[in-house]
Amino acid sequence: MAATQLTASPVTVSARSLASLRASSAKFGTLKPGTLKQSQFRSLVVRAASVVAPKYTSIKPLGDRVLVKIKEAEEKTMGGILLPSTAQSKPQGGEVVAVGEGRTIGKNKIDIDVPTGAQIIYSKYAGTEVEFNDVKHLILKEDDIVGLLETEDIKDLKPLNDRVFIKVAEAEEKTAGGLLLTETTKEKPSVGTVIAVGPGSLDEEGKRQPLSISTGSTVLYSKYAGNDFKGKDGSNYIALRASDVMAILS
Fold first, then answer.
1. Over residues 158-165, mean pLDDT
2. Cβ atoms within 10 A of the Cβ of 188, count?
3. Global pTM?
4. CA–CA separation, 121 vs 154, rounded Å?
5. Rounded Cα–Cα distance for residues 8 and 47 (Å)
6. Residue 121: per-residue pLDDT
């Protein structure tokens, strides 16, 4: 799957750390190895996956949470080029290995729809990463699951809940005046064709409310919403919530 790859966990730097580093830079000029003291890095925090001790033999998610075994990073491009670890993007896919008991909405008990063993795509910044049996996992809420993927191509994604899956329109190659645009100057399109829709969100009684958007519709969506993917054929796709679709074009 070309768009669901792995990288290391992000590094979080506090404002106080940045201020300290800037002050040190101003004081010492160009920083050299050994210039800064250890005390100046006390508030510099690197957040890695939480490691589960070997004495624990299982993880049981609670409520509407699921445990996902993260898909391994793609080490090569589709063209066979070897990728360094720094060039591998954060994963958004994996296998569901355990599910919680569900949740209660009103008087209704709502089970988790996603079965164990399912291959899923999840929101880019969702969940908490844990390392269990030397394998990286993610604990996240069911609502953070974008959709199910039964093949290796993102174009076959089946969106869940209130999500809509869209094939993004091609970017304009030329300006209105006829000037040819380079890849870096092409404006990101916010128009596309709906190729799949989820079953809808749950109302206050736990009943599904079907989406008003249908497959085949050409839509205008919020420019910075959703999760972007690239298919094996090079086409661009985006999965977003129905509330991020602003209009239907005709």
1. 97
2. 10
3. 0.70
4. 9
5. 10
6. 96
